[in-house]
Amino acid sequence: MIYQSFKKYQETLKNGEYTCTEAVNYFLSAIEQHQDLNVFLEVYAEDAKQKAIEVDQKIKNNTAGKLAGMVIGIKDVLAYQDHGLQAGSKILNGFKSQFTATAIQRLIDEDAIIIGRQNCDEFAMGSSNENSAFGPVKNFADKTRVPGGSSGASAVAVQAGLCHASIGSDTGGSVRQPAAFCGVVGFKPSYSRISRWGLAAYASSFDCVGPITGNVEDAALLLEIMAGPDEYDSTVSSRPVSDYSNLSAGDKKYKIGYFKEALESEGLDPEVKELTFKKIESLRGAGHEIVEVDFPLMKYLLPTYYILTTAEASSNLSRYDGIRYGYRTGNASDLENLYKKSRSEGFGPEVKKRIMLGTFVLSADYYDAYYTKAQRVRKLIQQETERILTEVDFLISPTTPSPAFRIGEKSDDQLQMFLADIFTVHANVVGFPAMSLPNGKNKEGLPVGFQVLGGNFKEQDLLNFAFYLENNK
Ligand code: GLN
């Protein structure tokens, strides 16, 4: 199927050239054909076919919703009633959602077709999709390489044409980093723009639901539908949702900043650097003002992120006790032993490490030295970023310091793995929207991403600029 954008595809549905049933059948056979990528943990073939028949009928009757015919895959951290949900973990073995996540329900209400749930790093902790209890996912550009993480499979699904779009989650880069590694578009909206109801929690003050798509327009449309107030999530913003998909590339000249610290950093791959500067030069050539910005706080981003997210994770994941959900050990001597064994056997190594780290930073003796301090640093970073964004319209950077690495290459090197998120965590620490767009390929043919970070709740400006970039490659 040649798919350019949802708008164009929807025209073919409306004028009868194509049907949703054909689209679903197409994707089901593509999924079957590419099983070796390890993308889908479960495929909802019968549900999807049934829904396609209904939507085809609705299109004929002119009663179809805005997403009629869009075939969507969802990361295994989003609840879909009566369907499995495991967050890539053994501890949720056999668990089925009792309700549907608000973000997903809104897509369904607009006649999107959910085709299955997608592999991911366990509880969304990871940058390579190697931490899943269901095995690693392969990058479609080079099957010996990782797709990024934690929404790695969701990015590969779009990259390999296994669905029109995916819905992932981004706590520190999990939508943008895999999008960059797979050459697709990944969008993390402002914190609280989309309800988190029905999203398995990792670090609640960072977690965001976000779309992974083949183009900017589809991302804007999905945001427009998923965003907005929700009585089930009291943290969600009540700011009005604009018609994000009403994009204008325009001819506005922007002032754009980049961090010297980011582009001069030693760990930056030379080809990624070159492609980023090429983009900067082309923006300059098009009349935009590009300025270098000092950001000495940059070195505190990853420590702040990892202290606060592990603290929140240790609390959020305490609910998996072997009693209430999924996995329970078979041989416990007493209640405490049952908790311990269920958790020890059910969680994978990365998750255990983070629970321990988070418990440590929250412990009475260290709380102030780590947790409180990291909260203060977070505030400083937020204030400084906000100040910078009064001087420039956007901040740009590579999405990741390198293209996709090989499966197994960084598994034993925690620091190297954490560094994969160096440019993406910023947006989550401050809560602002950011987007990864394809920025060409390196000499080996591996995709490279380009990140744009915008002001808080300035999604429309960010999307317009991204649309402009997409149209002026
Ligand atoms: N790679 C980061 C981490 O492991 C980000 C994960 C995410 O955004 N869910 O925490």
Number of alpha- plus pi-helical segments: 16
Q: Quick one: overall form?
A: globular
Q: Which percent range fits the helix content?
A: 25-40%
* Sheet with the most strands, sense and barrel status: 11 strands, mixed
Could you tell me how far the N terminus lies from the C terminus, measured between alpha carbons in angstroms?
24 Å
- What is the SS-derived class? alpha/beta
Please give the order of strands in the largest beta sheet.
Answer: 1-3-2-4-6-5-10-11-9-7-8
Structural description of this entry:
By secondary structure, the protein is of the alpha/beta class. The protein has a domain at 6-226: Amidase signature (AS) domain (Amidase signature (AS) enzymes, Alpha-Beta Complex), CATH 3.90.1300. It contains 16 helices and eleven strands. The protein has helices at residues 6-14, 20-33, 45-61, 102-109, 152-159, 176-182, 216-226, 260-263, 270-285, 301-316, 335-346, 349-362, 367-391, 414-419, 425-430, 459-471, and strands at residues 40-43, 71-75, 113-118, 165-170, 185-188, 208-213, 255-259, 289-293, 394-398, 434-441, 447-453. An eleven-stranded mixed beta sheet has the order 1-3-2-4-6-5-10-11-9-7-8, sandwiched between helices. Strand 2, helix 4 and strand 3 form a beta-alpha-beta unit. Helix 2 packs antiparallel against helix 3, helix 5 runs parallel beside helix 6 and helix 10 packs across helix 13. The chain is globular, with a radius of gyration of 21 Å. The model has no long low-confidence stretch (mean pLDDT 96). The site of glutamine (GLN) has 14 residues, from loops. The site of glutamine has 14 residues, from loops.
